[in-house]
Amino acid sequence: MAKKQYKEEKDPLHRGRFQAQGKSLEESVKWERNTPLTVKEGKRLLNKLRDKLTNSDLKIRESAFSKQNLNIDRIFKNGGIDIGKMRKNYSKSFEPGIKERVDIEIFLGKAFIRQE
Q: Three-state SS for 107?
């Protein structure tokens, strides 16, 4: 029996998620789509994650959200990111010894490109 080819029409070509993690929190917002995630949509999804947190969880991660906004801008200014078949790219926002963080995980495809 032949192995399933990854690029079937129904499989989204661009996937990833924003995730807030910590000692007592794991919340995320994901994207699965057939078109690359634009920088504008990426920032909207990051804000959607921010809106899901309580005030106390948000306060702990305020600098992490700021850091990830800057990471999105940096990636955009460099032409976006294309994971191809590398499988996963992480951008973690935590400082050594601190578990409360906000991550960007890009599983497949392109992200933070210019709106076309």
A: strand
* Residue 93 pLDDT: 72
- H/E stretch holding 68 reads helix 55-77
Strand ranges (E), 34-88: 37-38, 81-82
Which neighbouring-strand residues pair with 91?
Answer: 104
Q: How many CB atoms lie within 10 A of CB 24?
A: 8
Six token digits for residue 74:
């940096």
Q: How far is CA 46 from CA 7, 11, 109, 113, in A?
A: 27, 23, 18, 15
> Using an 8 Å Cβ cutoff, are 113 and 37 in contact?
yes
Residues of the chain with pLDDT under 50: 1-8
What's the order of all strands across the beta sheet hosting 110-113? 37-38, 110-113, 81-82
42 contacts 74 by C-beta, under 8 angstroms: no
pLDDT digits (tens, 9 = 90+) for 22-37: 989 999 999 999 999 9
Separation of alpha carbons 31 and 77, rounded Å: 21
Beta bridge partners of 38: 113
